[in-house]
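In this section we walk through a basic example: taking a raw amino acid sequence and producing a predicted 3D structure, encoded as C-alpha cells. The instruction is simple. Fold the sequence below.
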Amino acid sequence: MDVKKIAVQTAAKYKTWNPYEIADARDVQIIYAPLKSILGYYTKYKRIQCIILNDKLPYPLQRFVCAHELGHSICHTNMNTQWLKQNTLVSTDRIEREASTFAVELLLPDDLVREYPEYSLEHLCVMVGIPLDLCLLKKFY
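The resulting C-alpha cell sequence is shown next.
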C-alpha cells in the first residue's frame, strides 16, 4: 500500500490538506471526549465512521491525531483500530505505521517542505504538529 500516494490523492480529491475538512467531506463524525491518557481512536459502527479525539489535547497534537485516525478511516475502513495511546505513537505495527504515515504526508506535503528549504525537517514537523519521533516517516520521491 502506497500510503503517501493515498494521502496526496485524498488531499487532491477534497482540495484541502486539512484533516478536519476531509473528515467532514467524507461524513466521518468527529467527537471530542475526555479520554484521559488515550489520544484518540477510529471506529465504525453500522456504516457510521467516527473519530474520537481527546478533548484535552493541545491543538497541534489533536490535529495530528485527527489526521492519524483519518488515515485509519481511509486505509483501514472496516477495521476498528486499537486506541491510540501516547506510547503507541511510534508503534511498529503495520496498521499504526500506515495511519501515522498518512498523517505525516497529509500534514507535511512535499510542496510545503520545498517552500521552506531553510528549515530542517524536524523544525517543519514541530511547526505543523507532527511528533518528532514520527518525522522519519516522511518520504520524498
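Looking at the output, two observations stand out. The chain has one domain: 3-129. Residues 3-129 form a domain with the Arc Repressor Mutant, subunit A fold (CATH 1.10.10). In the next section we compare this with other chains.
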